[in-house]
Amino acid sequence: MLSVVTALQEAGHRAFLVGGCVRDLLRGQSPRDFDVASAARPEQVQGLFRRVIATGVQHGTVTVLEKGARVEVTTFRAEGAYLDGRRPSSVDFHDDVTVDLSRRDFTMNAIAWDPLSGELVDPFGGQADLRARLIRAVREPMARFLEDGLRPLRAVRFATVLDFSIEASTAAAIPPTVHVFRRVAMERIQQEFDKLLRAPAVTKGLTLLQQTSLLAAFFPEAVDRDFEAVARAPADEAVRLAVLLLGTPQAREVVVRLKYPGRVAELVGALAAQPELPRGDASDAALRRWLSHLTAARAGPLLAVHRALGSAPAGLQARVEALLAAAPPLTSRELALDGKALMEALGTGPSPLVGQATRFLLEVELEDPSQNTPEGLRAALRGFPQGFPQSGA
């Protein structure tokens, strides 16, 4: 990062660190990445460094690959009108860093720092707002939110992740601009929401989303849910989404709509569709049947959902953990007789009878796992098909 700033300045171009990295440094945190703003035009930046990716040349941004790091370098710029609620229709390059800072979203992100000279440019009071733990829009909040519909959600996300407050006029500008927020791609909303969902102060974030009408705009199924329960759940996206969606018939489809990965949607759908747990005094066999139906991998997340909601029977988790530690066979694939051996024992070829016998033996094994040996299962077959319902019966 320093080498990039140094090279730009030695070539005669003003250059500053800007945005989140400066905010993090002022808070005593280690930045995850570094952004540089400079008076250098994109083609000048490209000429200065050996390895450069033209990430957004039309908007003044290139990515410099330097000493194993990726550093975004963006030319000081002003922006034209926002016509789509997300991006400016045009950009004009400038030589003044203050002009560049004035287009940014929040005062804490509108600070520039020269790491070589120590100069700090803070035209909108971002340092004071950081000390006061305030999220404040740069200049007029309504204008900022009408420009870019994602900014209101970012305000709530920052307030949640940093455990800050949103300044009153900034918060008041969110509900009247929800119509612009509705135009934002769900993929971008999901990225911001997921950071909020995993944060320790998630109750605060969900409450702010509801109060500002943002939640109803993209996740109406979560309105008026138990936000305190979400905070009691592990910081896992699937578990916390399931807490918000428990008992929702179309939970999987909701999570797909929110653009979460398919594996997350499948798990949330399964967890949300399982509102009931076994009784605390259920037999071991009943617990094994429950685990077989649910799948063992989903037992922990489902118990976490119910613990968060206060609906997990006392002692159930310890019993389930003990059962799983014993590694009982819970699926037909784990039976001691495979399909070929089962057909030999039945004296038949491939037929529906094999499937019926497999289900019968799985029930036998779930009742008593000690019978899951080739000899034990062959002996159990003496009771099949008597007492086992045939298809169509």
Could you characterize what this model shows?
The chain is α+β, with helices and mostly antiparallel strands and 393 residues long. The chain folds into 4 domains: 1-124, Beta Polymerase, domain 2; 133-218, Hydrophobic Seed Protein; 232-327, Methane Monooxygenase Hydroxylase, Chain G, domain 1 (Up-down Bundle), CATH 1.20.58; 336-383, no CATH class. The chain contains 22 helices and 11 strands. It has a 7-stranded mixed sheet. Strands 6-7 form a two-stranded antiparallel sheet. Helix 7 runs antiparallel to helix 11 (202-211), helix 14 (237-245) crosses helix 16 and helix 15 packs antiparallel against helix 16.
Reconstruct the topology from this structure.
Layout: H1 2-10, E1 15-18, H2 20-26, E2 34-38, H3 42-48, E3 52-56, E4 61-66, E5 69-75, E6 77-79, E7 91-93, H4 97-101, E8 112-113, E9 120-121, H5 126-132, E10 134-135, H6 141-147, H7 151-161, E11 165-166, H8 168-172, H9 178-181, H10 186-198, H11 202-211, H12 214-218, H13 227-232, H14 237-245, H15 251-257, H16 262-272, H17 284-294, H18 299-309, H19 316-325, H20 339-346, H21 352-367, H22 374-380
Helix pairs in contact: 7-10, 7-11, 14-16, 14-18, 15-16
Which features characterize this protein?
disordered C terminus; alpha+beta; Methane Monooxygenase Hydroxylase, Chain G, domain 1; 393 residues; 22 helices; 7-stranded mixed sheet
Short description:
With 393 residues, this protein is α+β, with helices and mostly antiparallel strands. The chain contains 22 helices and eleven strands.
